[in-house]
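=== How it folds ===
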Amino acid sequence: MNEICTSSQQENDLKTIQSLLTGDCHFPRSWLGFHEETGESKQKEWVVRVWEPSAVEVKIDWNPGKNHTGSEPMQRLDEAGIFEWRGRSLSNRSPYLLHCRFEDGSRYRRYDPYYFEVHFEELDQQLIRWLEKKNGYFLNPDSMFDVQIKRIHEYKRQLLNLLYTVYLYNKLRRDQDFKPEPRTVILAGKAAPGYFAAKLIIKLAHDIAEVINKDPLTSARLKLVFVENYGVTVAEKLIPATDLSQHISTAGTEASGTGNMKFSLNGALILGTLDGANIEILEEVGEKNLFVFGMDSEAVQRLRSEGYQPSGFLETNPELQEVLKMIESGFFNPKHPELYRELCNGLREHDHFMLLADFESYCEVQEKVIEARKDPEEWTRKSIMNTAGSGKFSSDRTIREYAEEIWNVEAMPTELHGHKIQT
């Protein structure tokens, strides 16, 4: 996963950014009262804690139209324009990013009318080494890292991800000529102690992984891993290495969330429904730069009011029927073949969060992902646009709006190393 980051040679600038962290106030959402604001992300903290050790170098020229033989090193991260820490995205610079020309591999990538010269540390290699040491996983560094990390809950639809993983597994087994880019599906998250369905989904993930990771026909192209004990430390390893980030809750169920903002900030492409902060990210980065599927909240409510019958969607999709039969028959857990029957019956009879209704659309958008990965230039352009559009989701912007719209207080300038700083 390619990272846009700050130069390791700009040590003084990094120290300046690190000092600025003390001014990046972050308030838990529970403190914010009833007034609705976009969720915030501590972007500067992620840059210093996650990216600085990677020793990534970036040089930028923000002067289009002039003849330059080289690039100008960034003076400070926000001045260079990678992120506008005060909550302004780079929409004014987007037209230039749209005309990028790329070179593959570890060589520099040149853009007209200006260019980034980037030397990337292999953050995916760091993740692979960490997972190998932590869990004994041996992952393909050339695979796409397809990540869904969040609290395990039925409305967040980790089960939909698993249904597609089995669908893809079957397709790989049946069609030996079907050779998509290798994919590593990574799940992580915690479940409430008494949440039986969530615990069952975690168990199913492990059982599916046990089968497909050992299948010689498919293991080179598809692996599934579940990273236990998810928390900030795990996120700092997973998020920077992610290629595709899944946020697939049933439309109308997600309040906002900041996890998808961190993925977008790190250049991962989002695959998701029109729900929660996905909608705001789409507005900032553009619909062409993420993968949207499924019903919107109005369609969900309409289908529910009409009397949703999940069996109707199942009857017209033989591949989905096969997936459910494999799960409920004990294919993935021969010692306890009855373990997942109730889970599958719940989908057939109720399916409150409409996994079956969205499954076909989900498969279709996954096909778009497979096709998009065949064009590294276009994928990298989309990644850049996600990073460039993430400025709005800074906690600086959120706190400034609260100061102006709710608290009615003015920002006070402060000094850092003898320089006045206006927040």
